[in-house]
Specification:
The complex is a heterodimer of chains A (237) and B (404). Chain A is built from seven helices and ten strands. In chain A, strands 6-7-8-3-9-10 form a six-stranded mixed beta sheet. A four-stranded antiparallel beta sheet of chain A has the order 2-1-4-5, covered by helices on one side. The model of chain B has no long low-confidence stretch (mean pLDDT 90). Chain B has two domains: 197 residues, no CATH class; 177 residues, no CATH class. In chain B, the strands form two sheets. In chain B, strands 1, 2, 3, 4, 5, 6, 7, 8, 9 and 10 form a ten-stranded mixed beta sheet that branches. In chain B, strands 11-12 form a two-stranded antiparallel ribbon. The longest helix of chain B is centred in the N-terminal third of the chain and has 41 residues. The chains are: A alpha/beta (237), B alpha+beta (404). At the A-B interface, helix 2, strand 6 and helix 3 of A face helix 1, helix 11 and helix 15 of B.
Chain lengths: 237, 404
């Protein structure tokens, strides 16, 4: 068997995934039966116009919300069958999140924000500090160590957010419009960083974005329209 | 890390947090001063009783406390004296003859308790000698009597006047004698002053046909903390014909009052706490709803609900603790000089006297007082934060992140 014929490992699967919200008493079908497979190491972009269901799909995959119908499987396990505590543990150990609005903890420094998930996992302090410093040096954000989010630019905050998301070597990083609040140069630099993490650490990245920069970088593209998969493209880059 | 986040979070809205802390501190100061003054009054009442007559312990024939008749004199005075001398915790003791009787002057008469004392021993056990406001203390001079100033006023007598004392003697006849007033005393309690009169021990024994016997021995200990141990030792040494009573047993109502007061302070703090808790609930609710997105993110990155709740409760605890500590510090600074100089309430002296309290009250801070001040309010702050914390925990992560 050659390297080209190694079978991809499925890490996420959705089956007939549906989500209905209620807005002012009116039901809104955000997702209408999504069947999706994400493999280990994917650099996947979920794109589509506003209201197509991108963020909703990402939230369901990340167990931040629960589906109205269908199922999400993470490493073969149906997330609907898990308790809140188990989902919380899954998010802590297996997932990383990068948000559009950065969402760093305002009262913590960059260093403290990054090490926070390790604190939640009970990693001893000396080990934490070393790993955080190593990662910050690797991502070239070590000069931000003692700065709080208000003292950083958007790009710097997002780099810290990426560091927070990957410090625990998660299986999957979910990034919701990560470049939306950044200029193109900063956005490009951030994507370079994420691609490097994908290559070097085999972390699966799933983006929700309508930014062309992001779409062009994705090795797989899922295009959503009105809550359904309109088309998929392989090898966008 | 949770403590670090909680500490920094309370200073995000500095003005709001400071207002909460000040309101807690003001409550603590008011409660602390009220408690220390009231405790000072209560303790003064008890100490006055101990110092004026009761002492730390009293030794009697069994049954005397319930029936204070002259027939219930000590079975073996010498045995009691010897045991007391051999007990190292005993600092001083004074033997007394006690009898209910009647004092008459030319113009009036009054029911009294006649106390025959050894003046030198008695002045080491009670404060009667130090309470003299006119004349002198009992001495070797025969037939001297020291009465309360209030009693003297009632009888219309002065220093040097004669009075007749009568009481039922041991053999049943009415013993009587004439005494000359040598001293007037004024104690903590006007009621006490109207009742207790002091004559020399030997003359009381003579009047009541007691020979060398006495009714009781009042004891002062070197260390009051050893009270119960000394009581047990004396009971063992004296046997079942005697009763050895501690001051809590002799003054059960007063001791109960003191205990009830301490319990009532918990209620007082609870009332203050209930008043504060709504402010804390309001503050914590505002703080929680302002940070819903942040809580959603924390849950998204893997923080469990329990830890989130703990973090919010910790913030409330810090607010309460800082306010309590600040209030205690201010209260203590105000309390210290007052505890030395006392608070002059002479305008209320008549009422205070009737309760057995002097005109100058010295506030007293007890260990319970310190613990109440420092622990109850922070605890109430945590209780106040439970609802907001549970509210934050109930939000789904995505709902919290989207919260506006």
């Amino acid at each position: 068997m050659t390297a080209e014929t190694i079978m991809p490992t499925e890490i996420i699967r959705t089956e007939s995934l549906e989500k209905i919200y209620s807005e002012n008493g009116v039901p809104v079908r955000a997702l209408r039966g999504i069947d999706l497979v994400v493999n280990k190491g994917d650099f996947l972009v979920i794109a589509g116009p506003s209201g197509s269901g991108k963020t909703t799909l990402l939230n369901l995959i990340g167990a931040l919300d629960s589906p109205t119908g269908g199922a999400v499987y993470f490493e073969g396990e149906n997330l609907s069958r898990k308790s809140e505590a188990e989902l919380s543990a899954m998010r802590l150990h297996k997932l990383g999140f990068v948000f559009q609005a950065f969402n760093l903890i305002p009262v913590l420094t960059a260093c403290e924000n990054i090490e926070f998930t390790m604190v939640l996992r009970g990693v001893p302090e000396r080990q934490r500090k070393q790993r955080v410093l190593d990662l910050m040096r690797d991502l070239r954000i070590d000069e931000l160590a003692d700065k709080r989010p208000l003292e950083m630019s958007g790009g710097q905050q997002q780099r810290v957010a990426v560091a927070r998301a990957i410090i625990t070597n998660p299986s999957v990083v979910l990034a919701d419009e990560p470049t939306a609040n950044l200029d193109s140069t900063t956005g490009a630099s951030l994507l370079d960083l994420m691609e490097r993490m994908n290559r070097e650490k085999n972390i699966t990245f799933i983006f929700s974005s309508h930014d062309q920069q992001v779409i062009q970088r994705g090795r797989r593209l899922i295009l959503l329209r009105d809550g359904k998969i309109d088309r998929t493209e392989e090898g966008s880059r | 890390m949770l403590l670090k986040i909680a500490w920094r979070n309370i200073w995000r809205q500095r003005r709001r947090s400071i207002i909460v802390m000040i309101s807690v501190a003001v409550g603590i100061v008011a409660t602390l001063l009220t408690e220390t003054v009231s405790m000072g009054m209560m303790i003064q009442m008890l100490e006055n009783q101990i110092g004026s007559h009761v002492a730390h312990l009293q030794v009697h024939r069994k049954g005397f406390e319930a029936n204070q008749v002259v027939q219930n004199y000590l079975p073996d005075r010498a045995k009691v004296e010897q045991l007391l001398r051999e007990t190292p915790e005993v600092e001083h003791y004074s033997e007394r003859v006690i009898s209910f009787g009647l004092i008459s002057s030319a113009s009036s008469s009054s029911g009294v308790t006649i106390v025959g004392i050894d003046p030198q021993r008695e002045e080491k056990v009670t404060t009667i000698e130090r309470s003299l406001v006119a004349g002198q203390y009992l001495s070797s001079r025969r037939n001297g009597v020291v009465v309360g100033k209030r009693l003297a006023e009632k009888l219309g007598v002065r220093i040097g006047d004669k009075i007749v004392a009568m009481a039922t003697a041991l053999d049943g006849h009415v013993g009587s004698d004439v005494f000359r007033i040598v001293g007037l005393y004024q104690s903590f309690s006007s009621e006490f002053d109207k009742v207790y009169v002091y004559i020399p021990l030997t003359e009381a024994q003579e009047m009541l046909a007691l020979d060398a016997d006495v009714s009781e021995v009042a004891v002062i200990l070197l260390n009051r903390d050893r009270l119960n141990q000394v009581q047990e030792a004396l009971e063992r040494g004296l046997g079942s014909s005697y009763e050895v009573l501690t001051y809590p047993e002799i003054l059960p109502l007063l001791v109960l009052q003191l205990d009830l007061f301490q319990e009532s302070m918990l209620v007082f703090y609870a009332i203050i706490g209930i008043a504060l808790i709504f402010g804390i609930i309001n503050t914590m609710l505002m703080s929680v709803f302002e940070r819903m997105t942040e809580f959603g993110v924390l849950k998204a990155i893997g923080m469990r609900n329990g830890r989130l709740v703990a973090m919010i409760l910790l913030e409330a605890l810090l607010l309460g603790a800082i306010g309590a500590a600040g209030g205690f510090a201010v209260g203590y600074i105000l309390y210290l000089p007052l505890s030395h100089s006392g608070i002059n309430l002479s305008m209320f002296s008549a009422s205070l006297n009737s309760f057995g309290v002097g005109a100058i009250i010295y506030p007293v801070l007890t260990v319970e007082g310190v613990l109440n001040a420092l622990l109850i309010i922070p605890l109430i702050a945590v209780l106040g934060a439970i609802y907001p914390a549970l509210k934050a925990a109930r939000f789904r992560p995505v709902a919290a992140i989207r919260y506006v």
